[in-house]
C-alpha cells in the first residue's frame, strides 16, 4: 500500500486524521483528498484504463434527477418528471486485473477501515455480483453525467485522467431531505432553470473523493476537451451479500456477468 497511497500526507490509520476527515465530510458533504495516489500507481491505473477502454460499455440515457419512473400525478415539465441526459462508458470489476493498484486499494483492510470510520459505517463489504465493486468510467468529448441524486448514502471516486476543459463536478448540498420525504421540487426547478449557482469541486488526477450524494444534487458537465475523462468508482455496501439488480446491471453495464 505504501507504493499506492501517499501515507505521509494521508495517514489513514491515524485517529486524528480519520477524525478530521469525518468532520470535513459531515460538515461539507464531500471529502477531497488531493495526491492520495502515488505517481507510479496513478500511471499504472491510467495504463490499465487506457488498455481496457475497448471493453467499455457506452450508453446514453435520459432520466429524472430523482432516478425514478415518470410520475403521472405531475405534468412532463414538473421537476419530478423533467428529463436530463447521461452518457458515458464503463468497464466492470471483472475487467480490472488481479494485480491492479485499484484492486489492491479496494481490497486493503486498512483502506476499508478508513472509509468505514470516515463515513460512520460499522463495516463495508464488496458487491456480491461480479461487476459492481470496481468500475472505471469514461467520458469522451460531449459526454456528461446529468443532474441527479444518489440512492446510496455515499460514493467513493478516484480521478485518473481529466480533459483540457469541461467535465466539472458541480453540486448543491442538502437540496432535498430524502429520508423525510421532502423532495424540494421548487429548488430542483430553480437549478434546472439556471436560477441557482452550484458549487464546483475542482480536482486533479490522483484525488480521492468521498461524497454524500443522497441529498446533494450533482452532475458532471459535458467534456469539452479531446482528452477522455477517466474516473474509478469504488463501491461498497454496509451489508454482505448485496448485488446490483439484474435490471440495473443491464442498464449500466449491458450485461449480467
UniProtKB/TrEMBL annotation:
<dbReference type="InterPro" id="IPR056470">
    <property type="entry name" value="BesD/HalB-like"/>
</dbReference>
<feature type="domain" description="Fe2OG dioxygenase">
    <location>
        <begin position="129"/>
        <end position="240"/>
    </location>
</feature>
<keyword id="KW-0560">Oxidoreductase</keyword>
<dbReference type="GO" id="GO:0046872">
    <property type="term" value="F:metal ion binding"/>
</dbReference>
<dbReference type="GO" id="GO:0016491">
    <property type="term" value="F:oxidoreductase activity"/>
</dbReference>
<dbReference type="Pfam" id="PF23169">
    <property type="entry name" value="HalD"/>
</dbReference>
<dbReference type="InterPro" id="IPR005123">
    <property type="entry name" value="Oxoglu/Fe-dep_dioxygenase_dom"/>
</dbReference>
<keyword id="KW-0408">Iron</keyword>
<protein>
    <recommendedName>
        <fullName>Fe2OG dioxygenase domain-containing protein</fullName>
    </recommendedName>
</protein>
<comment type="similarity">
    <text>Belongs to the iron/ascorbate-dependent oxidoreductase family.</text>
</comment>
<keyword id="KW-0479">Metal-binding</keyword>
